[in-house]
Amino acid sequence: MSNPRSTAQIAGHPLHPMLVPFPIAFFVGTLAADLMYGHSQDMFWFTATEWMLGVGVVMALLAALAGITDVLGDARIRAIGIVWVHFLGNLLVVLIEAYNWYRRYDMGPDAVQSTGLILSLAAVLILLVTGWLGWEMVYRRRVGIADDGTV
Fold this sequence. Notes:
about 75% helix, mainly alpha, elongated, about 5% strand
């Protein structure tokens, strides 16, 4: 029996795992910049968080589009229970970080001190769980892995 296939792909290479490192890096970078801003009060770090959150949310939406295309494209993927926990957890991260981004535009640097750092930390902690589940799907359930001898 063949492995569950990725529907969103280029030349047999799944798009979702190519896109997910970008929002992860931007959201972890936001947490690091929040910590630096909290320590130094340097506006550079606050401005960096605004950009990282914005680009992170956009890239997360692109990764989500590729991921949901894969889920809808293969019933075997939909049948894996952790797929839905992975999906809902990542959706929660995008909502948290979109709200985090909005608050920074609404409140300015005060948003970092009041809730921004906590939201960034919560998002990264959730990403640790959803990332684990994503790799569980790849390594144990072989989602998106080419069958031996195929391209």
